[in-house]
Design goal:
Blueprint: E1 5-10, H1 13-30, E2 33-40, H2 55-83, E3 87-93, H3 99-107, E4 112-116, H4 121-130, E5 134-137, E6 149-153, H5 158-166, H6 168-173, E7 176-182, H7 196-204, E8 210-215, H8 222-233, E9 237-241, E10 244-247, E11 250-253, H9 255-263, E12 268-271
Parallel strand pairs: 1-2, 1-4, 2-3, 4-5, 6-7, 6-9, 7-8, 9-12
Antiparallel strand pairs: 5-12, 10-11
C-alpha cells in the first residue's frame, strides 16, 4: 500500500511552508495526487477569535483570508508544476460551521491528511472525526524528508494498531523504526495487549526492520519519557494512536494525546 491521495490543510500564511514541505516531499515519494485545501473562516464568532469582535471585524478577517489564500494558491500551483507533482487547489467556505468540519469532509476521501497544530478544537476533531491518519506538523518544524527514523508509541491497543498500519507507507521507506512501550507492565495492561515483539514480527513480514524498546516512567511523565527517548535516538517522526473518550456525546482527547500535540517539536502521525 501507499498514499495516493494526500490532503494538506492550509490555514494561513505563517503555516504554509511548514505543512507544504512534507506535503510535496511525500507526494513525490509516494507518487500521490496532492490536494491543497483552504477554508474561509465562518461568519459567526469562534471561541478562539478576538473576544468582543463585531461582525464587521469577522467579515474583514474573512476578506483578508481570501486574499491570502489566493496568493498561497498561486505559490502552491507553481511549486507543484515545477516539481512535476499531480496537484489541485480547493477553496471552500465554512459558512456558519467550524472550519474543521470542511477539512474533515474533504479528508475522508484522502489516504493521508497533513495539517498544522492549533490551540482550538480543530486539531482534535480532524483526527477524531475524519477516520484518516493525520500528519500533524508543529509550527516552525522543518519536516521535509520526514520519516527516516521513526518512533512508534505502542501500548497494544486499538488506536495504536490503527496508527501503525496506517503508517506502513512511511515505515517501509524508513531507515530505522523503533517500537516503544512506556510502562508495559503497569496495572492497566491486560492479557489482550499485543507485545512489542509481536508487532515487530508482523512489521518484518512487510520488510520493515524494527526494534522493540521498553521504557519505565511515572504515569504523569510518559510523554516526557517518550520525548527524551526520541531526542536521544534522533527520531524525526512519532507514530501514535489518538486516544479519546466521549464526554456528553462529544469526543475529546485523552490527556497524553493532548500533551503530545501541545508540546511536540517533531511531526506526529496520529490515527483514531
Amino acid at each position: 500500500m501507499t498514499y495516493k491521495t494526500i490532503l494538506v490543510h492550509v490555514t494561513g500564511e505563517p503555516e504554509f511552508q511548514t505543512v507544504m514541505a512534507p506535503a510535496f516531499d511525500l507526494a513525490r515519494r509516494c507518487g500521490a495526487h496532492l490536494i491543497g485545501l483552504a477554508v474561509v473562516p465562518p461568519y459567526i464568532l469562534q471561541p478562539s477569535f478576538v473576544p468582543g469582535a463585531t461582525s464587521a471585524v469577522v467579515e474583514e478577517h474573512r476578506k483578508v483570508f481570501i486574499a491570502v489564500a489566493q496568493r498561497l494558491k498561486a505559490a502552491f500551483e507553481t511549486s507543484a508544476r515545477e516539481a512535476g507533482i499531480s496537484a489541485e487547489w480547493v477553496d471552500d467556505d465554512a459558512g456558519l460551521l467550524p472550519v474543521w468540519r470542511s477539512a474533515v469532509n474533504y479528508g475522508r476521501a484522502a489516504d493521508l491528511i497533513i495539517a498544522g497544530i492549533s490551540d482550538d478544537e480543530g486539531t482534535e476533531q480532524l483526527v477524531l472525526q475524519s477516520g484518516r491518519p493525520v500528519l500533524f506538523v508543529p509550527a516552525g518544524c522543518d519536516a521535509g524528508g520526514v520519516g527516516k527514523r521513526i518512533t512508534v508509541a505502542w501500548n497494544g491497543r486499538r488506536e495504536g494498531t490503527r496508527a501503525v498500519f496506517d503508517a506502513l507507507p512511511l515505515l517501509k521507506q524508513a531507515d530505522a523504526v523503533n517500537v516503544v512501550w512506556v510502562n508495559p507492565k503497569d496495572d492497566s495492561a491486560t492479557v489482550d495487549d499485543v507485545p512489542t515483539g509481536d508487532l515487530c514480527t508482523a512489521l518484518a513480514r512487510h520488510g520493515i526492520k524494527c526494534e522493540a524498546v521498553e521504557l519505565s516512567a511515572p504515569d504523569a511523565a510518559v510523554g516526557d519519557a517518550l520525548a527524551d527517548y526520541m531526542q536521544a535516538w534522533g527520531s524525526d517522526l512519532l507514530v501514535m494512536g489518538c486516544y479519546g473518550h466521549s464526554r456528553f456525546r462529544e469526543f475529546v482527547l485523552g490527556g497524553a494525546t493532548r500533551k503530545v500535540l501541545r508540546t511536540t517539536v517533531l511531526p506526529v502521525l496520529m490515527s483514531h
